[in-house]
Structures
1.
Amino acid sequence: MRLVLVLGDQLSLDLSALRKADKGSDVVVMAEVMGEASYVPHHPKKIAFTFMAMRYFATDLRAQGWSVAYTRLDDPENTGTITGELIRRAAEKGAAGVVYTEPGEWRLIDALAEMPLKSHCLSDTRFIASHKEFEDWADGRKQLRMEYFYRDMRRKTGLLMDGDKPEGGKWNYDHDNRKPAPDQVDFEGPLRFAPDEDVLVLVSERFSGNFGDLRPFWFATTSAQAQEQLAHWIDGGLPKFGDFQDAMLNDQPFLYHSLISFYLNAGLLDPLAVCQQVEAAYHAGNAPLNAVEGFIRQIIGWREYVRGIYFREGPDYTARNGLGHDRALPDVYWGAPSKMNCMTQSVAQTKEHAYAHHIQRLMVTGNFALLAGIDPAHVHEWYLAVYADAYEWVEAPNVIGMSQFADDGIIASKPYISSGNYIHKMSNYCGSCAYRVQDKTGENACPFNLLYWHFLDRHRARFKSNPRMGNMYRVWDRMEETKRETILREADQWLAKLDQGAAV
Ligand code: FAD
Ligand code: DLZ
Ligand code: SF4
């Protein structure tokens, strides 16, 4: 007999390791371990979600006839690590070896590869593109632009294809997906499910020092519940998802977003099946093409593409720091008071829900970190810890590459930076902010305005010949010299206050 490892983000009945195993003789190993629960200070909701979903999945497996050796966190025999648990269970059961599906983080891939047990690692087939397909696509290309990869995934899956042409004549309807914040949101947001109280008690006892609110806990924790959430969103959220994808509103964390990344990444939902359901809503006339195409692009385009980059670039990717940024992560990321309403809003809902939507992650907390020159390793660790959908394969390329440009432009052709103007256009945050978004200098000037020029000025050598940034430098160069000096001086003063821990 062999052991079959199922990790906390591998909760899929069609997992390659389960398909390879023999239900009659093999034993599934699942383990809640401190090693996984504390390698970054995870948000308590993320830990509770993982443990609850693991426990329900083990129950499902047993109901299907599998033998499951499940270790709870407070089990006195618990060795504290995945490899420790496999070694312990192998001795206990007299197992000949271990079958497992490749984990989503190099850290664990390396640990399993070094384990003193005979083991067999299988590809994770829950994705649309295999590593080889991504490599074949990437090899020989000068630039790895997501858009071209995405088109191949459309052709491969047949999603939104009209023969060999894209549905509606265009591959990408992003142009229609940039509407500013609506006055009112007519979708009530995600479904709320009852939690497993035992897990909440365990997590509150063991992880009370971690950033984030454990209660109220409302995530789906089984695949049937995740499916309910998907159906609820397709019905009520999808029709306006495209229009308001980039919008942000005070005290409205969810808008028209699907809130399914937790479930997809843990294995409770299958990406292709999700996209097929969304496509069916379009064909049934229940959702417009810009919403449906925009959503499918995020899943079969961005999600697959970032995974390809993570595995192609290798374990040192998370240590990259192409712009040499070295500022410590300011306390505002851990909920310290700040005068910047956009940051306060984005961090507060992250603390409450272990969730923020894409534009908050990219254009508020990510943009601020990049403009302020924060060490990307710290930024990476923060995102990996605070979001319930964060595993390195998806988080690191989004943070190190897309958001912080620390990979020197593998993912982004130019840094995602903006002044306060973009946030003002896409949200109602600025209206209730202590700073004035219209002010470019002076005591009340929006820090994003000051830091935007500070970033461009300090990285001039790196970006001046980037064709997509020439305009920005022309505007800067045309400014009066005294104004430029004032901006740089005030930005330096503001950053000094930030470093001193002032509530700026
Ligand atoms: P929706 O807005 O409804 O989008 C639908 C789905 O598309 C998501 O569920 C997700 O599976 C997929 N998706 C969208 N954008 C991306 C993307 N850029 N990369 C991968 N998948 C995408 N996503 C994660 O799943 N885990 C992370 O750790 C993560 N970290 C991020 C860090 C930064 C700095 C940025 C800019 C983005 C990050 N994303 C991450 C991508 C994106 O922000 C989340 O997938 C999305 O906000 C999840 O919310 P949702 O399910 O409501 O998504
Ligand atoms: C995120 C997480 C947490 C908090 N705890 C566990 C755990 O106790 N046991 C487990 O098998 N998996 C856990 N996970 C998910 C793993 O960290 C994830 O499988 C790896 O990071 C690889 O993506
Ligand atoms: Fe953010 Fe500046 Fe707007 Fe305040 S004024 S909310 S700091 S962009």
2.
Amino acid sequence: MSVQKIKARIIVAANTDRGTHVWCQAFEQALPGARLIPWNEADEDSRADYALVWKPPGALFRRETRLKAVFNLGAGVDGLLSLPDLPVGLPVVRLEDAGMTEQMVEYVVHGLLRVSREFAAYETQQRALAWKPLRPVEREQWPVGVMGLGAIGLSVAQAIARLGYPVAGWARSHRDIAGISVFAGLAQLPAFLARTRVLVNVLPLTGDTENILNRQNLERLRAPAYLINVARGSHLVEQDLLDLLDSGHMQGALLDVFRVEPLPADHPFWRHEKVTVTPHIAAITLREHTVEQIVNKIHSLEQGLPVSGLVSRDHGY
Ligand code: GLV
């Protein structure tokens, strides 16, 4: 990590479990010379050059009018871009990888193996003291489809391909990727879904992708289908999934994200025998990786150099 001093003023508003102060301390150490300012609604304009945020209040952007860039302390920028006060021309930089890709790969591979190798059934059998080998996995029976082929989705698809499962990916535009059949755009979505049994959602949440996991699309999947959602809760029409689980078209779902988080205690997903719920942990922002990545980008910006991870406001990710 660079130890070159910079004079920047940096405001931090991180609505996370670890909180704003822990992030401030970490960046203070990594950016000698910089002033780290925790967001406090009652304060005056702190004339910050940069903002480091996770789910920040819109008021931050009304008050801090000299920002040169805002860094999102996560991969998904849907929450940030939905703030009406975010200035149109302000560069938004999202986190790239920062240790998240390998966590996503592990989570999805675990979900796929759990369903295709019938581990849940063996857990049930153990409770009944039943020694009963089930069918061996036939990978052709488990075609996997990964929606979203950004850095994370691509790594997930490649890891699954390496395990020998047939894999397709769905992306906005076509690309040639060895070992993965790529379907592109809305026109090819039906064909992508029709060849897919295990659907993995890694899409960014945008106006175009909200509610994309709806009855019409899920019904196209090869039954009995399985859903792994590690992207955003608002991609999924939850009642449609519940109906298709009841009808047997869907055999189960592994869900890490929900429309309302924490998932309310009375939500049917908690108690549904075909649904596995995890509390938005598929890929957690790792502080050391995050600090190093953002510090390097601030140094680049201060020297007038370009940085990667710039969000396209048109595309919404
Ligand atoms: C987590 O959900 C993230 O977008 O980083």
